[in-house]
Amino acid sequence: MKETNLEWEKLSFSYVPTDFNVRCTYKDGKWGEIEVSDSEYVPMHIAAACLHYGQESFEGLKAFRGKDGKVRVFRMEENAKRFIRSAEGISMQPMPVELFCEMVRKVVKLNERFIPPYGTGASLYIRPLEIGISPQIGVSPAKEYMVVMLVTPVGPYFKNGFNPIKVCMSREYDRVAPKGTGSIKIGGNYAASLNAGQKAHELGYSVMLYIDPKEKKYLDECGAANFFAIKDNTYITPHSESILPSITNKSLVQLAEDLGLKVERRHIPIDELETFEECSACGTAAVCSPIGQIDDIDNGKTYRFGEEGKAGKITTELYNKLRGIQYGEEPDTHGWCEIIDFD
Ligand code: PLP
Ligand code: COI
Questions:
Q1: Percentage helix, strand, coil for the chain under 3-state DSSP, each rounded to 5
Q2: What's the rounded Cα separation, in Å, for the pair 13 and 253?
Q3: pTM of whole model > 0.90?
Q4: 94 alpha carbon to ligand 2 midpoint, in Å?
């Protein structure tokens, strides 16, 4: 039996073993049955395409134990659709939306005892991944694929939780190429971001804020999260083909509109940072992480936002609204949550 005496409130964003994962293989031109496994390992051919040529994509979504005791999964069809785009972006076999959702429901149900209780601030992180598994020595796509979904209970992504983070930016680090793979969620993008992340940590920052790789003039995204800013009652977020279209950001855009804010999706010149009232990173793992300070480490320029150590008013409102919907405290007026049926 895996650990059950978890201190839910103390969880960070790291791997905790759970009971089961689910798997599905594409072979001979079709997807097979969903298989349940209690192994934490994937046996693999030494020449598997994922090992040599990086045919790997993944997703990240969450299940929440609500105030009413029900378990809600947030916008899984959106993840399913992005999973298809990622597969297509690196010539892998896309998994149909309904099969993806079936796997999510199954893996959540099988690991019910690892869904953190309501009120602990924690949630169950669901991590689907797809890999090319057939042997491939010439550079071409695999013929066989496997999708694995694992779950792990998680707490906050940044260790200060909802307290403002300090981030840095530099023209010396690109996460992706201008017409590259930035808008899909593939492992290679994250491998390419590790040095920048390490550099940011070494210098005492939570994360690197990437600048657009083509012109080096505009803000792109913030580590493994999108970026948004607030000024003049407007929610402003980058329009860029080198960032991942975040489902959290898309949801916050809707919530901002619901709150009566204007929304602008456009290029954000670096200099405009001087004019922002609030800034934040957003994503499934990051949720809404207010940014208190951005340092341009190439020229020593510092941008500060709001009152020191405090999240901005609108960021807080958006965060509370989003969390409220996910934990079943607020009406789900946009139909974003699926309640898992445990009967
Ligand atoms: N940008 C990158 C590079 C990410 O890895 C993520 C995480 O998934 C996001 C943005 C946020 O996307 P989402 O809100 O869909 O989780
Ligand atoms: C997520 O927000 O789900 C992510 O995938 C971020 C990350 C830990 C890579």
A1: 25, 30, 45
A2: 25
A3: yes
A4: 20
